[in-house]
Amino acid sequence: MVCGGIVNHSICDTFHPFVHRLSPWATLLDYFSHEHRLLFVVSAGNIFRPYPVPVFDTIAHFQDAAPEVREAALIAAIEQSKGTRRLLTPAESINALTIGAVHGDNGPKTPAAGIDPYPNRTGLTSLVSALGLGANRSVKPDLVERGGRFLAAPSIGQDGFVQVHGEASFHVGQLVATPSPAAGDNAHVHRTSGTSNATALTTRSSHFIADALDEVFTAERVDWTTLETRAVLLKALLAHGCAWGDTGEFLDRYYPPQEQYTGQRRRQTITRFLGYGQPDHGRVVRGDLHRITLLGEDQIRSERRHDYRLPIPPSMINTREVRRIVLTLAWTTPVTNRTVDYRGVVLKICNPEGKSAFWEGVKRSEICQPTGSTANRGTLIHAVLEGKKLVTNEDGQLIVCVQAAQTHKDLATVHVPYAFAITIEMAQSQQSRLYAEVSAVVRAAVRPAIRAGTR
């Protein structure tokens, strides 16, 4: 499906999991993404191959176990099997937005038959969703969305212990339209699950974001669908509301390794499952008095830097209320097989000195999220910064920069489209003047590539 530069691509090669090098299929998607300014929303793929759950030695033992015991065993078993559940081609595409599935739907809470693997917890990765990481150990899947539930079907493996695979059921899943055996029945539905469902929901969300962009750009008499940056605008905003949330904190407590100083390795493991997390698109398309989003879009060449000056209102500087800044940078790049890094042009977020320590007073949040080293390896960077105090320049501004560099000399003159979303958030008690203060300064002084709105 193509709509306004978005292509829903819910097809995978079940016989060709991603292993180290990009497939020709993924390379083709990357080519079309960059050359024709398209955003491919690609499903991570479904893997129905069973994985061992050695805690149980009989099927009856598995079936009779307490739900919380069975849940813990399944979570540990999937983590141990992550190396055999890689993304299915072409989900490793560098420019595409790859979508994994989480276990969840609006079906009956207790299935009429079978075993719900996670009856008491939402947001965990689906039993069948393929896992990252992507090319050059980049964040993949980029994000996860609800893909319906699969039931846990046990069997006995060759080692004599229980193994489990995800089993589709008519009793759980998401309602989708389906052909009816009765002629003329246009309302026939049935339940289904999988990463294709999650991809479809993400594509649907892009339409709501497109409506919001229509409103913002129309106010400036600009048709954003004709811009070279139209696809990356959607890409950035689809990811801008992502977070690991309670699921990330839960996995961070229980996934190995748990030894001291192993937090980065553990969070890399969680990234394989959750990417940047499940998005809250409402944070992007709905206005809020204590939160404002600035949206920049432009094209950049290698060895160039674009500076963005963020006006910080006095209400944020003069208070020690907890505040948060969310940064999302998305771009497309030509790919090259002549370097270890397939990205022809690499973008990064930095300060005016070219360093990743953006501003004094705020730092990369302690909230669970992909590590900075992993986030910087793809074409989508999403980071949350927090602090108690913002230190601005003498003009009351924070400066953040987008820096470009090519990986091969032949790509030095390539123009790369990018979009940069920045959300400034205050505590609820400091919400009254935020939008008015920031909007007034932005419209008066900021370079044309930055656009402000209540979105």
SS field, number of helical segments: 11
Radius of gyration: 23 Å
Stretches where pLDDT falls below 50 for ≥5 residues?
445-455
Task: Give the helix level as a range of percent.
Answer: 10-25%
Number of domains: 2
Cα separation of the termini = 26 Å
Structural class: alpha+beta
The amount of beta strand, in percent, is 25-35%
- How are strands sequenced across the largest beta sheet? 17-18-15-20-13-21
The strand count comes to 21
Largest sheet geometry? 6 strands, antiparallel
Indicate the mean pLDDT. 87
Q: Per the principal axes of the C-alpha atoms, what is the gross shape?
A: globular
Keywords:
single chain; 455 residues; alpha+beta; Jelly Rolls; 11 helices; 25% helix; 25% strand; disordered C terminus
